[in-house]
Design a protein that fits this description.
This protein is α/β, with parallel strands linked by helices and about 210 residues long. It has one domain: Rossmann fold (3-Layer(aba) Sandwich), CATH 3.40.50. The protein is about 50% helix and about 10% strand. It has 8 helices and 5 strands, in the order E-H-E-H-H-H-E-H-E-H-H-E-H. Helix 4 crosses helix 7 and helix 6 packs across helix 7. The protein is globular, with a radius of gyration of 17 Å. It starts with 9 loop residues before the first strand and ends with a helix. About 35% of the residues are buried.
Length: about 210
């Protein structure tokens, strides 16, 4: 059992791929005794089902249907990641509202979480009383990002070294964009390292206790 229950009912952990969101979400889930959800689960469900959404969804398939996508400029890939996040925002908003309204704490992590999500009316209302907390992780070192993505797998070993470096750079740029936007929304931004203190640093950053 955790030493105390968290202040939040929904904790969002954003950041680029390779920043350690999944590992730390699991650690926090075990610490607090609450489940955690990957935004990738929602994205894959939408992509695989080709469900009809109220807005244009072409960007949702950018990384799955663009030929030789990792040969594109890193800046274009970064824009693609932002576009996917914008499409995923309404779905994440629904999950947040459901878990708050049903009194079911959860940790949600993923690179599809944009800081602007906290400004959406349904989320903002709940975030204002502390039920929704968010923290964004950054890893500024491209080699560390690449090593983390390689350790995770997911087919990156099938890419050329140049494509791997392009992906790592795009993720670093995306992390910078997320951090800049999080700063505008006064949301906590933490460097992933040192790993040994990350759980404690996230708890401190998302606690509403004086």
């Amino acid at each position: 059992m955790p030493a105390y229950q968290p202040d939040w009912r929904v904790l969002l952990i954003g950041g680029s791929s390779g920043a350690g969101k999944t590992v730390i979400a699991k650690a926090l889930g075990l610490h607090f005794g609450v489940p955690w959800l990957q935004v990738d689960d929602l994205r894959l469900a939408l992509q695989s089902s080709h469900v009809m959404l109220p807005e244009d969804t072409d960007a949702l398939y950018f990384f799955t249907q663009t030929r030789d996508v990792w040969q594109l400029p890193s800046e274009r890939l970064c824009e693609g990641l932002i576009a996917v996040g914008r499409i995923m925002t309404p779905a994440i908003e629904v999950v947040i509202a459901n878990h708050i309204d049903t009194f079911a704490p959860i940790i949600i992590e993923g690179d599809g979480i944009l800081p602007s999500l906290l400004a959406r009316p349904d989320v903002q209302t709940r975030a204002n009383n502390g039920q929704v907390q968010a923290v964004f992780l950054i890893e500024p070192d491209e080699e560390i990002l690449l090593a983390n993505m390689a350790a995770r797998g997911r087919g990156i070993d099938q890419f050329t070294r140049e494509e791997q470096c392009t992906e790592a750079r795009s993720k670093r740029l995306y992390g910078q964009r997320l951090a800049a936007e999080a700063h505008r929304y006064n949301l906590p931004i933490l460097e992933s390292r040192p790993w040994t203190t990350l759980v404690e640093r996230i708890i401190a950053a998302t606690s509403t206790r004086a």
